[in-house]
Structures are given as structure tokens and as C-alpha cells.
Amino acid sequence: MAPFTMTISALLESKLRSATASFGPVEARVQAANDARFGDYQTNIAMVLAKQQKANPRQVAQQIIDQLDVADMCAPLEIAGAGFINFRLKPEWLAKHFTGFLSDARLGVPQPEHARTLVIDFSSPNVAKPMHVGHIRSTFLGDALSRIAEFVGHKVIRDNHIGDWGTQFGMILLGWKTELNKEALAADALLEMERIYKLISARCKADPATLQAAQQELVKLQSGDEENLQLWHEMIRLSQAQFDAVYARLGVRFDVTLGESFYNPQLKDVVVQLRDRGIARESEGAWCVFSDQVGKPENDPFLIKDKDGWRDNPAMVQKSDGASNYTTTDLATLEYRLKTWSPTEIVYVTDGRQQLHFRQLFAIFGRWHSELAATVRLAHVWFGAVLGDDGKPFKTRSGDTVKLVDLLDEAEERAYALVTEKNPEASEADRREIARVVGLGAVKYADLLPNRQSDYVFSWEKMLSFQGNTAPYLQNAYVRIRAIFRKAGEAFEVGNTAVELVEPAELSLAKKLLQFGEVLPFVLEDYRPNLLANYLFELATIYHGFYEFCPVLKSEGATRTSRLALCDATARVLKQGLGLLGIEAPERM
RNA sequence: GCGCUCGUAGCUCAAUUGGAUAGAGCGUCGGCCUCCGAAGCCGAAGGUUGUGGGUUCGACCCCCGCCGGGCGCACCA
Length: 589
Known about the structure:
By secondary structure, this protein is α/β, with parallel strands linked by helices.
């Protein structure tokens, strides 16, 4: 028998490869059937081959079946529809196979053939500004992708590219010197820094003298003025302390936090290199990268079409005042990451509005470091907006951005009220802890469930309704399983438990559990944790069906042991799967 | 104006990247607690996938044209 950590689809694919060898090279893909009437797994390979060879798909399917040796695993194969081959797993084979799953620490997730190294750039809050609702998707997505990649067996570097440099610091410095409230700073540093920033920013718009004063503070900072540098360091320290508190609360960690300022020493050199190599040229006093005229104009990020045809859409790498901007910083960052970690992949988790920027960035980098660029997959993993009930960006009633800590507080408060209502006899401390896990989980799950590219409507009622496809539903499935083991009283050792798969609900559950290992690599292909969320919801639903129809503690002998084993496996997959989404699974709720 | 992106059940979203009769949740209607936690389960109703063409064995998915929304278009990031 193949090593356990080969998924069933991979097992069938390898057999299919040998069965189709005589047809020439073709990608053998077997996927879980989307409808139980079509068996457990299906492949459309016969139709692919038939198209290539202009043959009859059903005849090709028959020829493949004649070569396919799966009699031990599957019931006799059927050809269905236009030429699908359907696989139905034999319950005896499944039961035997499932026994291996029970003692597998990796829960059936195969070791990757080639371990990748991913730098994942996510969260990226700004110094001197409180984290807000705009940071949740990047933070949750980046964290989930990091956890998943790591669990699958890849190496991950979590990099928080904080915004610690830029023109806003002129205003904040001016405000710090003239308007700072020390008590307010001590109470909530980010709130106070934001207040003085907004104050000066508004004043700058109305008053040229203030604007000039702010610009002078910025020039002093950039030229190394000691006082301003010291204040700036203080702002970073205060901000980082609050970021750390939020991340600790969220269970998010980073391997490195290298802000934009870290790359300042490289910026001049980046521009010089781009200039010397003819990649950037001067335009209206600024230095910009233009199209290299290679490739189709419609795929060229440096061209844009207007009524007179294609015109330039350059990327600026140095402003006319001599300062660099974010494209330059991102180029320096990219170079640093490649030279430091030699990643196979760099993933940027930001909102969709930055698509053009990243297309230009990747294109510039390819021209600047073509040999290095060829070694790495650069991915802009973008996401849509979080909207309010009105379909507009999510704001407070008064129109302000929603602070992340306020959002988390409210989630826990609402969860606390619900837990108290549902479970009034639990102690205050227990209810608080459950509310924390459930409230946080609800927010994270609601964010990770939709396709990342869609905008989604933020709704407390929905995520905390505790019905349907929500974190609490999944957590509850876990809790119910744990209750069974508490009630059983005896210690349950999985070992090499022989499993009986007789009832339809038992079979469905075992099959679904075995698919955990098929889902995770797929999630990483397109960086879509929502596929894991969907899988977990389906698993929990199937478990609930099993729970209704297959009594565990009331059954006896081998059936009881077998069902306990199914429960144990489900609990482990649920806990692990939720954990990969950054969500905890409570013992009671 | 140009580009990106989205348009799927009353509402909120999926759809294994071109596969079979498009699925969930909420809401609506009808069932199930002397039975391991009912935060659950079972069932019903609900669709010309914005629209008109095209490509092929097969299209929510790819191509072309419209309609509508969001975002972006060099000195913010």
C-alpha cells in the first residue's frame, strides 16, 4: 500500500497516469465528485484525450478503464455522461485506509515534493495611526496563509512592512511640538498621535504657513535632525507597543518587522541603478520608468489607452524634489528579501486598489534584476473592501473609521451576552474566555469565508447569529465531540483502531476527513483560505448528520470504538483546520 | 475617456479555475428534543448566473458588444 500521506486523489492519479501512458503525456487530474450520484471521485481525462486525438470520449474512457488497476480500491468503474470516469471507493478499502489516518499527526496532509520558501508581507499598519478595520483582511488573510503554508511543510517568513516613513511625519512632528496632550498620549498614544495629525493636516489645507512649517519638520527629519529623529523613534516605539498588543490578542506573529525606513539607505542607489541602466528616465523633474515597448500594449502596465491611442503611464521612482516614493522602497524591499531569504515566492497581501502598482513593481523588478526575478514567484494577493450595511466602506455611525480594538471589544461583548444567555450557569471567568474565543473567531471567520476578491458586508448579526456557516457553528461541532469524550469518561487511545464503515453517515464522514489533505495544497495554489473554510463547514455539517444518525456512546463493542475513532479524527481536523484560520476551538461553550 | 474588477435565489455569499441537473446560510413554510450539547438535524418553496452574440461534446467561468456598480489613472502609500 502507498504511504498514507498520499491522498486518495493522488493515489488514483498515479494509477491513472500509468493507464494513460500509451496516449502520450496528459495531466491526470482526479477530483472529489461534486455529487454523490457520481461516486466519490471523478476524472474528465478521457474527454481531454478524446479532444486531443479527435476520438470518441466514451471509447477512450473504456480503453483507459481496461488499463486501470484499481480493483482493490474501487467498485467496477463506470463511464458516465459525455465520458466521465467515476470512482466508487469500496467501504472495506476505505476502512482499512482510514485506520492509517487515525494515527497520522499530519492528518493526511502530504509532504510537498518541493518545499517552498514564502515571504508573506501582510498587515502593514502605519506608525502613529491606530489600526482599523482596513487592516483586518490583510492581517487575517496573511496570518491564515502563513499558518497553512507552514503546516503543509513550506518555510514561511512573515514580514510586517510597517509604514514608518513618509510625508505625514512632517505634520505629526509639528503637531507633537505644538499641540501634544501628554496625558492623552500616556492614555492612548496612537489615538493622540492621530488626533494631532488630523488637526495639523486640516490646518495645512487652509493655511500655507502651517503647510510650510510641516514640510520643514519633514526636511529636518529626512536630513537627520537629532530632535526630530528622536521624536520619530519615540513614535515608532509607542506605535509598535500597541501593534504588539493587538497582535497578541489576535494570535498573530511576525518573523520580521522591517519598516519602510529600513530601506532608506538603499533608495538613492536603486534610482541610480535604474537610471544608469536606462530603465528610468527624467520626466518633468521626476525620475520615472516607462514602457520598454516589449510585449503587447494591452498587457503593458506602463501604457494606457486614450482617444489618440496608447500613451505613457509611467511609474515614478523619484519625485522632482529628490525624495523617493513607495515604488522605490518596494523595489529595495524586494531586492533585500531575495538576497536575504532566497524565497521561491513573495506574497503581498494588500487591497485590490494597488493592483496597478504591483504590476508595475514586478515589471520594473524584472527589468532591473532579470536573473533574480526568474527565481521567484511574485504574487499580489489582493482583497476587496469591507462594507457597511449601506454598501459603502464600513464606518462608524458618525462616519469615522472603525478602530480595530473597538471592533474586537464589541465582538467579545456581543459574544459574552450570547454566551451568558445560552449558558448562564457557567462561571464569569469561563464565560469571558468563551466570549473571547467565540467573538474573535466570528470576526475572523466572517472575513475569511468570502472569496478574498469580493467585497463583503460586515454584519454583527450575521457573524454572531451563531447559526449557519459561522465560526461558532464549527466551534460547536468541536464542543459536541469533546462532550462525548467527557461523558465517556474513559481514556480513548486511537492506536490502530479497526474502523467499521457501514452506515452512510459513517462513510461520508470518513471520506470527508480524508479530503483534508487534498484541500490545503489547493488553498495555497491561489492563496484562498475560503476554500478551507468551506471544507470545514462541509465537514461539520456531515459530522452533525453522523451525530444525529449514529449514536456513539449507546453503541457497543467494535461499533462504539469505531465511532469514537471517527469522532476523535473529526475533532482533530476541526481543531487543526480552525487553527490554520487563526481560530481557537473551545472545550465548552 | 482608459484600465482593473464585480454583477449568481428576496438578502449575504459559494461554485474544486472549461465539467454532469449552479450550491450554502439568513429569511419564509412544514416536521424532529423521555435519546451523546436543539448554537443541531430532516424536508419544501425560491434561478433564463445583468444583457445580446460567439467559441465546443460541454460555459457562471474563455472571446466580442452593450447595461449597471466599485476602484484606479505620476510627485500619498
